Amino acid sequence: MVGAAAALALARAGFATALLDAREPRPWRAADEVDLRVVGLAPSSIALLDELGVWSAIRSSRAGPYAHMHVWDSENGAAIDFDAADEGRDLLGYIVENGLVQWTLWQVLDAAGVRRLCPAEVHAFEAREDRVTLDLASGESLQARLLVAADGAASPLRTMAGIETRGRDYAQRAVVAHVTTEHPHCDTAWQRFLPSGPLALLPLADGRSSIVWSLPDDEAGQVQALDDAAFRDAVGVASDFRLGRILATTKRAAFPLRLQLAERYQSERFVLLGDAAHVVHPLAGQGVNLGLRDVAELRDTLVAARLQGRDIAAAHVLRRYARRRLSADTLDAHGFDALARIHAWQSPPLVAARGLGVRMLDRLSPLKRRLAAHAAGN
Ligand SMILES: Cc1cc2nc3c(=O)[nH]c(=O)nc-3n(C[C@H](O)[C@H](O)[C@H](O)COP(=O)(O)OP(=O)(O)OC[C@H]3O[C@@H](n4cnc5c(N)ncnc54)[C@H](O)[C@@H]3O)c2cc1C
Questions:
Q1: Which domains does the chain have, with CATH numbers?
Q2: Are 172 and 217 in contact (CB under 8 A)?
Q3: Ligand 1 centroid vs 1 CA: distance in angstroms?
Q4: What are the pLDDT digits (tens) for 303-337?
Q5: pLDDT tens-digit map of 142-198
Q6: What span, in angstroms and rounded, lies between the C-alpha atoms of 118 and 140?
Q7: If you count DSSP H runs as helices and E runs as strands, how many of each does the chain have, helices first?
Q8: Which residue among 58, 73, 143, 328 is least enclosed by CB atoms within 10 Å?
Q9: Cα 72 to averaged position of ligand 1 atoms, centre (Å)
Q10: Chain-centre distance of CA 198, in angstroms?
Q11: Which of 275, 288, 292 to mutate to test the pocket of ligand 1 (most atoms within 8 A of CB)?
Q12: Is 99 in the pocket of ligand 1 (CB under 6 A)?
């Protein structure tokens, strides 16, 4: 998603752009079951996709709007609500399939003049004074002024550039599935914090909810091994039956969770963005939103450099992008990490203090509004 959005954004800004990917995205078809990988897109991401001319196609294909968010604590009953109306908006965001976003972006790359090389893998690259040369696994060679790496959390390009990462393994997995609930989701993203990790129920366009249930590795394994009836019961109990009983479920998948931040976002004629630069806990639903903010920042930085007649990949230009995004992403990543840690507290005084904090926050409109605006990407 992030690499395709970057290629399109840079091509639309007038840069000659090529996109390399190891695999073609799977075609998205309305008749297919809703894919298990979904994301909550914040207003900043929707604005970028709209600017790139793909948002209306995504929205009309299959996107679940949500206007409310209700977050509550299983241990002390404290809750916080976010309402689009309080922010002067119609909606807080949309839940969409990763595959739909990527596929829609791919459909317009050719018309935007992006040269697509797929399947293609970079074997090695070398930055020289005025260009970077890429050797592809196919034996082909490519030259460019700038190499933009959006090749995911394991980023082979980041490794080739010698950029280290720091962070921690949460020793947790997110179990995901789509469930049919007894009561409607009311266009609300629900999230219950349990001592073992958060359970989110995200509203899908077809009335079902997509669950993201973060659990310690061993418990996630046990939950995945349950038969469907036992899994439905377990989700019902974990969600405190907030949407009633769970009537049906799809198959499940699980994703390991970690916090990972690249130590630098740039080296010579090279920048990182998306999960290649940062991987965050999904509890705030912000991973791809941060990646799309990287895209907007990179495009704006390169356009400004071109306007000033500078080399778009000059070290000071790339440092400007890297400095801005690394500090914003670091703050967010550690904020989400702190939330995960605070919600793991189990000693009664700390649980009570957490409840007090959440209740106060819910009543402190200006602070709550700032949090909501930040999540929206403002
Ligand atoms: C359970 C879960 C729930 C989440 N929920 C949310 C949410 O609600 N909101 C949100 O914003 N984020 C969410 N996220 C995070 C979000 O899914 C990721 O941030 C996002 O998918 C990252 O996109 P990306 O394009 O940076 O990386 P990827 O999707 O990993 O894409 C990497 C691309 O690089 C290509 N590639 C890899 N290696 C090579 C190579 N050697 N050569 C060529 N190409 C290569 C791959 O084929 C792929 O196309 C969630 C994550 C999880 C696990």
A1: 2-68+80-166+260-376 (3.50.50.60), 168-257 (3.30.9.10)
A2: yes
A3: 7
A4: 999 999 999 999 999 999 999 999 999 988 887 77
A5: 999 999 999 999 999 999 999 999 999 999 999 999 999 999 999 999 999 999 999
A6: 12
A7: 11, 20
A8: 143
A9: 28
A10: 17
A11: 288
A12: no
